Amino acid sequence: MPNSKSAKKRMRQATTRRQRNRAQRSVLRTAVKRVRAAGSGKDAQAAYREAERMLDRAAQRHLIHPNKAARDKSRLRKLIQSKA
User: How far is residue 70's CA from residue 19's CA, in Å, rounded to a whole number?
Assistant: First the structure.
């Protein structure tokens, strides 16, 4: 348990940030899954645009590593091209 006032505040901040990051990561993963689950090429393309935006934003905010965002976008693009 925290002893000082600043340590208590840090603990509160960490809890808040952990919950926010967890929620954002969950939304991101769902967006990526939607691209993979899309049936037609058009649906996949629309889902990809949304996922791409989310991946870029997550990388920019250091929610995920920028290389992971690039890797995921690349793999999703390949998947869409194979569906088309």
Answer: 25
Instruction: Give me 78's structure tokens.
Output: 């390949």
Characterize 35-61 residue by residue with b for buried, 16 or more Cβ atoms within 10 angstroms of its Cβ, and e for exposed.
Answer: beebeeeeebeebbeebbebbeebbee
How many domains are contained in the chain?
A: 1
What's the predicted TM-score (pTM) here?
Answer: 0.84
Measure the CA–CA gap between 81 and 51, rounded to whole angstroms: 16
Per-residue confidence in pLDDT tens, the chain, 84 aa: 889 999 999 999 999 999 999 999 999 999 999 999 998 888 999 999 999 999 999 999 999 999 999 999 999 999 999 887
> Could you tell me the residue range of the domain that residue 16 belongs to?
5-83
